[in-house]
Amino acid sequence: MFGFCCKRLQLLVPSCSIAVDSGFHYHCFQITSFSSRSLSGAEIDKPQHEKGRSFTVSYFINSFGFSPELALFLSKKHKIQFESPEKPDSVIKLLKHYGLNGTHVSEIAKKRPHLFLFNAEKTLLPKLEFFSSFGVSGTALARLLCMNPKILTLSLERSLRPCYDLTKTLRIPDEKLAYFFSDFRRTSLERLCIVARNIPVLIAHDVPQTSFPLWVSFYFRALSFDSEKVKTNVDKVISMGFHPSSATFMKALFVISVTDTSKWEQKMEFYRKWGLTEDDVLLAFRKSPLFMSFSEKIISSKMDFYVNTMGWQPSDVAGCPDVLTYSLEKRIIPRCSVIRLLQLEGLIAKEDVSIITFLKKSEKWFLERFVIKYQEQVPELLSILQGKN
Hints:
The chain is mainly alpha-helical.
C-alpha cells in the first residue's frame, strides 16, 4: 500500500524522489527543482512580488519554451505568479502522463496559464480520469485540451458530468465527444438544455434526427436559441423552398438563425452589385445555403476571378455556388491556369471540360487527367499546379 502511495505522489510531485527499502520505510525526500537555483544579489534585493514575477517569467521560458516577451506578457495579462515550481511541475507531469507532449502543454499554458496553479491531484486528476472513462485519452484528449483548455476549469459534478449525461439524450456517440467538447460553447449546461428542448421542434416538422449530428458546430448553433425563435426560423426555411428531410435544410436553418434582416439585405445588396438578381441569389442559397454566410471580401476576389478573368457570367456562379467554397490560391487559380494553358496549346477544347467538374474533383483525379497525361507536351504543368509559375 505504501509503495502505491509513493508512486502516486511521484506522479503528482515530480520534484520528489522517494527511496523505499524492503521494509517499506522511507529514508528521505530528495527535493530538486527550479527554485533550488541560487539567486543573484540583485534578485535578493528585489521586493517579494517582483521576485515572484521574475521567477514566473523564467519558469514560462524554461518550461514552456516561451519567448521572454510572451512570458512577461502572459504573466502580466493573467496576473500569474508562481511561488514555487511544485504546482506547475506536478500539472505538467500529470498532463504528460495522460499522453500530452511538450507542444500540447505549451499550447495549454499559452491559453490558460492559470491551470498550472491548480492542485493536480485534487482538481485535475479526477477530470482526466473522467474523460478517460468514456474513451477520451491520448491524441483525442490532447486535441480537446489544446482547443478548449477552459474545460479543466469546470466543476466535475456540477458541469462536466451533467453535460455528459445530456449528450446521451442528444445521441452524441462517445467517439465524437472529444470533438464535441472542444468548443467551449458546448460545455455550457444551460446551452445544452436549450438544444435538448429544441430537438422536438425539428422532429415535429419531420426533420430526421440523423440529419443534424450535434457535434457539427453549425447544427448545434442553429438550435441554441429559445424554442419560439427556432420554430419561427424552421417555418421561414420551409417557406423558402427547403424540404425538412433534405440535406441542406439544417445548413439553411443555421444561416437564417445567425443572419438578421439587415444582414440578409446587406448580403443581397452585395450580390446585386455583382450583377445577380434576387432569384439568382435565392437559387444559390437553395443549392448551397452557406453561400449567404461567406465573407464579402473573400467572395469579391473569387467573383472577380471567375467573372473578369475566366469570363463567366455572374449567373453562372449562382448556378454552382460551391465554386465559391474553394481556395482561390490553392485550388481555383492553379487548376484554371492548367486548363487554360492546355486549351492554348490546343490539347483540349473548351467544350470538353466543365470548370465545375475539374474544381470539384480530387487532387489525384485532376493530376492524372490534366497534368500527367500531358506532361511530355507541356512539362511546366506540374509547376503551375503547385503554384511555382
